[in-house]
């Protein structure tokens, strides 16, 4: 690939393959089997994996590289969604103008928020971004009702202008006629694999964004961002102005979030204020840290993990649990169900919380570090590999070392 | 007319007169040492030169331009580099990256959005950084995580980061503080070489008399925020006022 060395090209090809094969990879269990509920290969969830992957990847450019922890990134997600739905209302259901406007609006919004918030660093920066996101949420919810349609959320009505809609245009979101909702189901034996156009559309954008992120990570600009995180004082005394670098990182990261928000609206033509709520901002922080801040793959993994929990674990209710433990004696069955009950279904947050704590305590580099440790154990069996500290490994992950 | 001209600088912190009417002139291509007992205002003076502090009154001219009111990165772009008392490096980055960053700053100025180019394709920057590392005998450590270097190596790396920018004036804040004698001597040799080979003017703040007398061509003695004397090392050694203020108790 242009601009990537051989190691990175291999890594990138792996990512492309994994993304495109997701309908297979996430559907390991045959239909109707007891494990089928752990399948994640349905369009809605796969779309979320890649869209939130983009969101977390963008957040990581800010947090992972510069160390500035924004607690208001959901605001950009919301702006992106609103912008896209407005394009549906005014022009028609083609997603392209909407996505373009989503990126532009969120970038402008990020310039404003970033310009003010980046005057402070550390916890004060986090608080400022949180305050901005909360204001945006409240505004979207009440004051700006003419633009956001308040509580109901923004949606397309039959009396909207939609000037580009012809008589034959699809009545749902589409990309030059290809409808996001159209799917093809392939039956192989007991398995059903769903190929959804919406997913592949989002996946193509995800792959493009992953490539862009990789280029940013390997660029002198990416190096400067890591320098900001490492030692801002030294940076200033080296003749570099850290402010425009952080602002650029903030705007890039806000645009990624806006694009993700636009894609959410591309899959489902709705935009609501709850998309800007602070829990959504918190979720992207969790995704990034869980997966491994500052690494390329980590935030994507984290996003996938959290969305999987949110959608799969939350569906395991008491009936399902009773089904699992039906083979046990009655008393024991009820006991097992009672023990597991708080961790699944509506209690999936509890499992996620414990997992998050375990990762932060035992794997400060996130899931990526976990993977690297496992890989190192295997490598050491092959040959006595020189041991490096986790930081070195993480650094190696971030930079293509000339070694190897 | 020196390359650095400090005239009538005053700085107060509340009731404390940190600097009182400081005049200083550093000649081009010399090593100028500023010595003085603790609390004499040496570091405050240095901070006034690099834009960290702004003096209450007075002027600081570098190569004919005032540095007052400029930000640290602007002052660096004018050609002043600074070595800190405790080495300030990019501890999360590799040794090579640490040296590449100042190269970028020198070539591209204080900000450039080079987000799509790859670091690997910046051949001239890589060469410049590697040459610099070779000059300070650190080339074999280029891929090391700079946070895990020894203190002496961190200092050497910081020096390399400043030198690679070919500054016109290098400010050093106690470059040998906390070093073993052998390391100190190495540093002295390195600094001597820098001064002679690269024609870089240096201004050193130092406690260690051994360092000061082996390097400096001129010495300013600061006491309680005011320069006591400014002269050659030989004259300073025997100066009664200096003995009284400083050497008397230190020697």
Structural description of this entry:
The complex is a heterodimer of chains A (404) and B (251). Chain A has 404 residues and is mainly α. Chain A has helices spanning 6-20, 22-25, 43-66, 74-90, 95-117, 122-143, 145-148, 197-218, 220-230, 232-237, 242-267, 278-291, 298-312, 318-324, 330-340, 348-362, 366-382, 390-398; strands at 154-155, 174-175, 178-179, 183-188, 191-196, 270-271. Chain A has a domain at 6-277: ABC transporter involved in vitamin B12 uptake, BtuC. Chain A has 18 helices and 6 strands. In chain A, helix 1 packs antiparallel against helix 8 and helix 3 packs antiparallel against helix 13 (298-312). The longest helix of chain A is centred in the middle third of the chain and has 26 residues, at 242-267. By secondary structure, chain B is of the alpha/beta class. Chain B folds into 2 domains: 1-79 and 170-251, P-loop containing nucleotide triphosphate hydrolases (Rossmann fold); 91-166, no CATH class. Chain B has 9 helices and 10 strands. In chain B, the strands form 2 sheets. Chain B has a 6-stranded mixed beta sheet with strand order 6-7-8-3-9-10, with helices on both faces. Chain B has a 4-stranded antiparallel beta sheet with strand order 2-1-4-5, with helices on one face. In chain B, helix 3 (95-108) packs parallel to helix 5 (151-163). The two termini of chain B are 34 Å apart. The A-B interface holds A 3-5, 215-216, 218-224, 226-227, 229-231, 233-242, 244-245, 248, 252, 389, 391-392, 395, 399-403 and B 50, 71-73, 76-77, 81-82, 84, 88-94, 97, 100-102, 104-106, 108-122, 125, 143, 145, 147-148, 161, 165.
Structural class of chain A: mainly alpha
> What's the gyration radius of chain B in Å?
19 Å
Determine the most extensive contact between two protein chains.
Answer: A-B, 40 and 45 residues
Helices and strands of chain B, in order, run as EEEHEEHEHHHEHEHEEHH
What fraction of residues of chain A sit in β-strands? under 5%
Largest beta-sheet details of chain B: 6 strands, mixed
Count of DSSP helices of chain B? 9
Radius of gyration of chain A, taken over Cα atoms and rounded to an integer in Å: 22 Å
Share of β-strand residues of chain B: 15-25%
Work out the count of structural domains of chain B. 2
CATH class of the largest domain in chain B: Alpha Beta
Q: Kindly report the name of the CATH homologous superfamily of the largest domain in chain B.
A: P-loop containing nucleotide triphosphate hydrolases
Order of neighbouring strands in the sheet with most strands of chain B:
6-7-8-3-9-10
Q: Span between N and C termini of chain A?
A: 19 Å
**Name of the CATH architecture of the largest domain in chain B:** 3-Layer(aba) Sandwich
Please tell me what the overall shape of chain B is. Answer: globular
How is the CATH topology of one domain in chain A named? ABC transporter involved in vitamin B12 uptake, BtuC
